[in-house]
Write a structure and sequence with these properties.
Glycerol-3-phosphate (1)-acyltransferase, 35% helix, 9 strands, alpha/beta, seven-stranded mixed beta sheet, globular
């Protein structure tokens, strides 16, 4: 096996009950604790699900928060339950370096974030794929920056969608930053890590697994189609497009926060 294959940069071979990405269709987030948290702890409510294609590939983009973010799982579970479509998630390769973590992530539909993987999922397999353009800047936002979307990089997610010829579907989440509020930034080995209030109160392990019971609302915005010339898009178009999507999501988030009755009741 080549280093690229061992790092998870290529689809895994087929195995009984597994798809080529290592996802086990019988192992769903709907089993056990996560389903209870989704329905009773976070009481997730969706708006705008009609904007998500019922077939074919689409790149879902969302805001990001938390030391161990719950947002990806909420999106995966919610869309699977509401639309009966599996959602794959792209994650930093560092998560796959921990013992047994890579296999567990693959089983639930998480794949190493790499342009080739994204293209295969979107273009070849016609899947829904969720990414978080804020990247590592999202989870480390302090209280003063809460619900202020960070810069969406250099528009790489738009380039991915254009290359795969799929729409971009923004999803705005309200409540996730209250479930795991960040109170300080820590730097470990040159990597910024958030210190959440949960971890400060309950310790690093239990705190990472014990989000507060904030009411979470998810609003899906109309799909965005980026025009290209032969699949090529200039850097300025990528960056302008990313900023336009970020601004639209920020406006929506501001509206949702203004209409919210409270953190716990939504």
């Amino acid at each position: 096996m080549s280093p690229r294959e061992s790092a998870g940069l290529r689809p895994q071979p087929d195995a009984p009950s597994l798809d080529r990405w290592g996802r086990d269709p019988t192992r769903s987030l709907s089993n056990g604790i996560f389903e209870a948290a989704y329905r009773s702890w976070f009481r997730v409510e969706w708006e705008g699900l009609e904007h998500i294609p019922r077939s074919g590939g689409a790149l879902l983009v969302s805001n990001h928060a938390g030391m161990i973010p719950v947002d990806g799982g909420l999106i995966q579970f919610g869309i699977q339950e509401e639309l009966d479509r599996p959602v794959y998630m792209l994650a930093h390769h560092g998560f796959f370096r921990f013992p047994f973590m890579g296999r567990l992530l693959n089983r639930t539909g998480t794949v190493v974030a790499h342009p080739d993987n994204a293209h295969r999922l979107l273009h070849e397999d016609g899947r829904l794929v969720v990414v978080f353009p804020e990247g590592e800047k999202g989870p480390v936002k302090l209280r003063s920056e809460r619900y202020r979307l960070q810069r969406f990089g250099r528009g790489g997610f738009i380039e991915t969608a254009v290359r795969a010829d799929v729409p971009i579907v923004p999803i705005v989440l309200m409540g996730t930053e209250d479930a795991t509020p960040t109170i300080a930034d820590l730097e470990l080995g040159g990597q910024k890590m958030p210190l959440t209030l949960n971890a400060a109160l309950f310790g690093p392990v239990l705190g990472a697994l014990a989000p507060f019971p904030a009411k979470i609302r998810a609003r899906v915005l109309p799909a965005v189609h980026i025009e290209s010339s032969g699949g090529a898009v200039s850097r300025s178009v990528l960056m302008d497009g990313a900023e336009a999507i970020r601004e639209d999501m920020q406006r929506t988030l501001d509206e949702m926060l203004a209409a919210r009755a409270g953190v716990w009741i939504g």
